[in-house]
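Before a colleague's protein record goes any further, I have to sign it off. My question to you is simply how this chain folds and whether the tokens agree. I do not need a full report, just your reasoning and any doubts. This is what I was given:
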Amino acid sequence: MTEQAATFIAKSTIKAANLEHRRVMRNNISKYDAAVPSGKAQFQDINIARERAKNIKWRALETLDQQLEEFERQLTARGGKVIWAETSEQALEEILAICKARSCKTVVKSKSMLTEEIHLNTFLKDHGIESIETDLGEYIQQLDEEAPYHIVTPAMHKSKEDIAKLFAEKLGTEAKLSPEQLTVVAREKLREKFTQAEVGITGANFLISDAGAIAITENEGNARLSCAWPPVHIAIAGIEKVIPSLSDLGLFWPLLSTYGTGQRITVYNTILSGPRQPGETDGPEEMYVVLLDNGRTRLLANEKVREALYCIRCGACLNTCPVYKNIGGHSYNTTYSGPIGSVITPHLKGLKNWNHLSYASTLCGSCTEVCPVKINLHELLLENRNETVAHGNTSFAERMAWKMWKQTMLHRGLMNKGNGKIKTRLASHLFKGWSGHRSALQFPEKTFNELWKEQRAIQK
């Protein structure tokens, strides 16, 4: 067993037994579940909309090189600069170079899972640069020195009482503030940082090829402040975020908001296509877009699993997954949790050390059912398992156990050998991990085949 697998089992075992954690998760997710039908009502036929979105993403990824080159041409024509980064280390060094050129001491960040993927905050801190999360959920997690718990809702696992207590400990506020009061406190703290920051960093929900622009969707307005107030704006995005045309946003923005938060459209939707232009009164003096690979082309090369790159990071698969709801985001010990994280992480980080995530699923298919771009998530999890076996990333004991099972299933005589007690003892010895979290295996005294023969004999 790898170290990552052992950590996953240890963390998930603790969380699954925590009834208060499950109560908070159930309560928070139920609010999204109740809102999603309202968002879906805006579509005349939601299935056709999802199918069209999937086809658009298919086209984008099948012509990814062309789409990204067109994006670069259009953005640079308006004074923006594109940086290609093959690894997280390259991306971090490029961002650091930009910050140093501006003698940057403070960075304001909007919510970005990609910056979590490359551990940007820690990197900047190590180089003497303060990096402040300005999204309320991310700000809460940063105060608590925790990674995000959910793709869309970083503090999904915290109750309002937990957050009030955290603010009291870290910011010296009263311990029983309401959510509205806590928001006011966070706004006052963060507004100071916006005015101090030399650099603003955001993610990008979409890269628009034909416009050379990035699209950002949010509910708090902090991303707009992060990219417009500081003199330098750095956007960092995975290369898979590209869509071919500006007109595609008319489909993708409502889909993302519907499946992400249940809204028809989020409060703030922004298209950014370069730095401040002559005659304009606001916006950054410089704009950089960092296009990050970090294993994505490796996933793209895998024809059977590449559709995982269609993901628009709505978080719907996490909200519906019975495993995620019980064990939470931190148990996965990686940036992307839930079904989509279990599919892509082994390919981004290496199948050998992360293949255990592909088994963290009931294969109920609920994740596939709710995906707005119709990614066959449960089938991709099975494909990951198949690749794990094909690459020999299984233990000798497991391989021998399956060989024995195969031989037994192919020979009726072997299946009928021994009584129920012998089979129960044998199975319990071979599969010790089974009874650790489940009821004990109990085999009947006779197989169905034996009972059937006896019944036929009686009838004759």
